[in-house]
User: Fold these one by one.
Assistant:
Number 1:
Amino acid sequence: MLAASEFGFKHRFWIIGAIFFVAFLSYNLDPQNAGAAVTEWIARLCGSTATTTDYHLTFAIAALFAVAAALVRTSATAYLNPEVMMDSQVQTSRLVADGPYRYVRNPLYFGNILLAAGFGLMASRIGFFILVVGMIVFCYRLILREEAGIAASQGDSYRAYCAAVPRLLPALRPKLPPAGSKPNWADGLLGEVFMWVLAASVIAFAVTLNQKVYFVVLAFSFLFYAVCLAIISRRRKSHGAGTEGNAAEGPAKRAG
């Protein structure tokens, strides 16, 4: 698989947004909601008809995926910093091998895939496939680009880290001892407010099964993202952290 281009990495937030857009646009081709289709399929297997409780349960599972994505990404960002997470350039000046990075080299991208799985149940059946497969493929290409840059910069230390810690599927147990880094949870939350409000939109739908409520909460996620992006951009300028970017990842990076 080819690594992402410089353009793809720099504009990854918008490309990921485009994957979501195309996935939900697929309702024009397939009007059946994926979560509802799964619920009704399971009910048929059980020889019954899907109930309202069954639908609530299915979308509660979707919400759990979204919450798990927000938790994973918040933890990862707390060990980096929001400025690094949103940088438009691959940063290779330091190796982060603590917190969730002891279990998986790319926890931020793993969080993206969890989010795609949760939101996939909100899309059509075709949309679910587009969202999950599209997210996995694009994130993997981003990982290949980042890891090549880090390996060139960090050399043997990074290769040893790669040999110990899986790339994208987390290990059940930490593969490295703690390095003593202290997470900054306030910064982690600042960098991932967008993800938490996205998760809140799925929770709202799981509770109400009302699309209007879902889309209202979803709209607020972009408002929160804009506010947080402005705060992070101002901090980056005041700290001389580098150029402005979008949503990022990195197993091991970025000294801001």
Note: The CA atoms of residues 103 and 172 lie 7 Å apart.
Number 2:
Amino acid sequence: MRAPLSDLPLMLVDARIVAGATTILDDVTLTIADGSPTVLIGPNGSGKTTLLRAAMGLIPLTHGRITWGGREAAAPARRAIMFQRSTMLRRSAAGNIRYALAAADVPRGQRQHRAAELLTLVGLDGLGHRPARRLSGGEQQRLALARALARDPAVLFLDEPTASLDPYATKAIEDIIRTVSARGVKIVMSTHDLGQAKRLAGDIVLLHRGRLIESGPVDEFFARPRTQEARKFIAGELLV
């Protein structure tokens, strides 16, 4: 798991997404470079999920462009996304991973071994035989993370990966994110939890009403926010 330098930086240039009369992303220009996780924060409806889905290639831009390593027409195959609410297939935990490996064109003879490796990585070794839908919520999120990693991504997008999880399950997910990041995978994730952003981020991106309000290194963002919106959000005030 190591991000090819040619795939990064990921750049959004004047990225706009409009649905009917609603502007969901409003001319966002942002560079996401190699290194520690980039964490998107902002109120509900700020555009975090839409930005992740657009970068993944799931939503087309209304205007603007997205480039990978300076190339607009050659998005990398090695990118994956984990949604906030992942659907478990009606098969075992290991079967869910093997399905993801097959979708990623991993040769059949390698799938069992690779599935076992991924189960160990996310702390589910010993549970591979268990029906995925009978796992706890935290275990299902770890399994969803393992399925995303089955693509051996250079860039991994995570949409609120610990929403609604208890502190123990949240810590388990955060530990996996640190491990994966240390192996060279670029993590781009959204969160509503400022404490989590401080713990995991290398840099922060604050969105509000689809606009990029402020971005920068995590320590600088929290110690010396440059915008009034950032100061309010850090203080726990509502952005309207």
Note: Confidence is low (pLDDT under 50) at residues 1-5.
Number 3:
Amino acid sequence: MRNVALDLPLLFVDVRILARGVPILDGVTLRLDAGEPTVLIGPNGSGKTTLLRAAMGLLPATSGLITWGGREASPPARRAIMFQRPAMLRRSAAANVRYALAAAGVPRDTRAQRTGELLADVGLGGLARRPARRLSGGEQQRLGLARALARDPAILFLDEPTASLDPAATKAIEDIVRRIAARGVKVVMSTHDLGQARRIGGDIVLMHRGRVVETGRAEDFFHAPRSEEARKFIAGELLV
């Protein structure tokens, strides 16, 4: 049974991450709790991907504190991340999932059944034998989701999972994300698409220049933004 309490709440306290002396995250304080999806929005270069990588445990904080369920060190056994363009292994869709299951430590005698379940869950049950690199862009993204779910995560981080996809492929991904969230998985997703943020987000986090500018419930954020940056971003103006 999924135990979300293992890694939640996920806390950033005055976190700075530097790259060659330049702040990529600059004094970020943020709390992520169990519940509906949290959607990160903001212009390119605002720090969304860096925040997701740090939340996964892939990047250490230069200063400040990151804790998972109150712990400063927490192996990411119940966390998974899917990047914007997940690399496809040179093997079938099913073999890609089996590889992810093996990496997650799933017993060999259950991998075949679990592979079928995961592929069916993302609508790829009929494409199990197709080479992963011959799948369409949307199908590859769904396969990436199946591989991430192989870890049976309590928290799933998604970095712009529908970037460059057409509307039909985008809807397919969004439908899967909703089903994942309905099962109790905490989804934290970045997107540049405000419409998608409205459709998916329970909570919204607006980032700009490596900082968290505003957070809040989606309905409050979009109908009564508190900051000038949020008002401009919602109106389609450029944040510079």
Note: The chain has one domain: 4-234.
Number 4:
Amino acid sequence: MSRIIKYIPLFIGLVLCLSCSPDQRQKMSPKPNAIGKAGQMLVVAEGEVWHSLAGEALREELMQEFAVLPSAEPRFDVRHIEGIKLTELRREWRVILFVGDLSQQSKTTKEISQVIGKEGLERAKLDFDYNTVFRENVWAEGQLLIYIFAPNKAQLLENIQKRSASIMKKIEESDFNKIKSNTYQSGLNRVANNEIKDKLGVRLDIPGTYQLAVFDSLNREIWLRRETQTISSNILIKAMNYTKDTQLSNKGIIAMRDSVGRRMITSAAQDSYMVTNKGENLIEYQKTDINGYYTLEARGVWEMKNDFMGGPFLSYMIYNPNNEKVVYLDGFVHAPGEDKRSLMQQLELIMRSVKF
């Protein structure tokens, strides 16, 4: 009798599940993990929309060049399909962007209509500010769905132009979680973290795949590196006293970069050392903020003096007014023939973990 009672809940659950509709059973089933790397997305739009001015504006936004790489790479890798080709497998993509002209009757507008409902359709015709909806984890875990729509093509173009910044920000937030997961899947290198804290007085979350290569006690500099058969990913850290404003200038950060690079980074070639390529428009500067501290950022391309090597770099000069200290961080990669966008995103994530 006790064994019969034990299986009653299972039997009831089975009966309830079989009595559900297919949609209800799908909601009750465990969701798969979303498909796709950071920077990848699926755009669902009918051909008439995709090849219109609205589609052109969207492509320009999504596929603009990622900042300062030796070879051009887009901000996002975009794959376009029409609504009729949205299969069950494709519904599991990590980022899906639906773009619809609601004056059309299509598979894409049907998808959008199911999300916003009849009231939403009527509202979209009258209230042009109602044009974008975000959904998460609908068909897969870790998924972001974005719906942008308008009552006609002209308004769709205007909506894309108005909302592109907020859409890009939402996608980048989703990418951040994916990049962080990939970067720290091996955990933390606590030995390196403690060494940085003890020797330089700052904290960084160094992934377990990075190893301490060099510590220069005289100049208070540390070099960390991650090596595989195809890529070399590196981080330079230097701590110093704040002595003058020029340390936080465009010339100051590049002078520091060349100084540290000359001392720390060499190759097998005789008399080789790392330098910054100072060609016109090859360096981008920006004033930013990292964890509440004023920061000067520089992005550009490095090369090896007396050798044929090079790649992208990202440098930070971070000022801490509490103790009048400056921390210099530099991330650079050498990955011939490989895409470098994701490598630089990982380095940025690591360096932005800095705390005093």
Note: The domain at 23-183 is CATH 3.30.379 (Chitobiase; domain 2).
